């Protein structure tokens, strides 16, 4: 059976609205709603980086990955051009992913410390990872319009996962904003004034099925890890807290 293709913002919203998690992943992979992002991701996949010249790039949107019934959800910004856009798995094949999965392994949420390609044997325990924007953007900077067009995908994913979620880890301010929007759309009560992002920020939120805690963490980008703004102990501390909450 062919998978329906979203070509407009309205198409994304319509196809996301009642999708199961499996359907959502399939529909995300076929999305063509943002012309600039479609053009860029496919250009990168054709031209490639010299180090990966012999590889076949994924060159499509990136679905969420991990446990389909997680206690912990990690929300990042967008796929890296030569990372997930190459490998087809979120946070896989780039330096940010090296940091993230090594930490997940150290705190007991992954079976191995590396994530190099889609068939490398990596498994996550009670954890799922998603990007707020599903296509690699130029300069890693999606526009506001692209963010809003893509939002129904993460909104639906959060709504499907919410009954079992206990912690949502937001990597950077972009992930924080996307998570708050998605949680609000799913019926979670958001405090006023709206909680502000910060590293190690912790905000308990109430919804009809129970409670979920929002956790802030600096994004493990090279800009943060090379400068020492984010260290391994800092990342481990946030993910340790997420693991504790996720096991409740």
Write a concise synopsis of the structure shown.
By secondary structure, the protein is α/β, with parallel strands linked by helices.
The number of distinct β-strands equals 6
Helix-residue proportion: 25-40%
Distance between the termini: 40 Å
- Report the major sheet: 6 strands, mixed
CATH class: Alpha Beta
Could you name the CATH topology?
Answer: Uracil-DNA Glycosylase, subunit E
What would CATH call the homologous superfamily? Uracil-DNA glycosylase-like domain
Strands of the widest sheet, in order across it, are 1-3-2-4-6-5
How does the helix and strand content classify structurally?
A: alpha/beta
Give the SSE order as H and E letters: HHHEEHHEHEHEEHH
As residue ranges, the low-confidence spans are none
Q: What portion of residues belong to β-strands?
A: 5-15%
Number of domains: 1
Q: Give the CA-based shape.
A: globular
Question: How many helices?
Answer: 9
CATH architecture: 3-Layer(aba) Sandwich
Give the overall average pLDDT: 97
Global Rg: 17 Å
């Amino acid at each position: 059976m062919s998978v329906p293709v979203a070509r407009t913002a309205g198409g994304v919203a319509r196809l996301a609205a009642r999708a199961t998690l499996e359907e959502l992943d399939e529909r995300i992979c076929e999305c063509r709603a943002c012309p600039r992002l479609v053009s860029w991701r496919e250009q990168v996949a054709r031209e490639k980086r010299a180090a990966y010249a012999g590889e076949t790039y994924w060159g499509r949107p990136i679905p969420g990955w991990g446990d389909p019934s997680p206690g912990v959800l990690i929300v990042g910004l967008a796929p890296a051009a030569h990372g997930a856009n190459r490998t087809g798995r979120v946070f896989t094949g780039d330096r940010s992913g090296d940091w993230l999965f090594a930490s997940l392994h150290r705190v007991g949420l992954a079976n191995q410390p590396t994530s190099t390609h889609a068939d490398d044997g990596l498994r996550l325990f009670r954890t799922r990872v998603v990007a707020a924007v599903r296509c690699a953007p130029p300069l890693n900077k999606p526009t506001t319009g692209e963010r809003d067009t893509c939002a129904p995908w993460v909104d639906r994913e959060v709504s499907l996962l919410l009954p079992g979620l206990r912690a949502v880890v937001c990597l950077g301010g972009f992930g924080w904003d996307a998570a708050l929007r998605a949680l609000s759309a799913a019926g979670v009560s958001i405090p006023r004034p709206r909680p502000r992002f910060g590293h190690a920020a912790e905000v308990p939120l109430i919804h009809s099925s129970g409670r979920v805690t929002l956790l802030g963490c600096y994004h493990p980008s090279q800009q943060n890890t090379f400068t020492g703004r984010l260290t391994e102990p800092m990342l481990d501390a946030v993910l340790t807290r997420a693991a504790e909450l996720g096991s409740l």
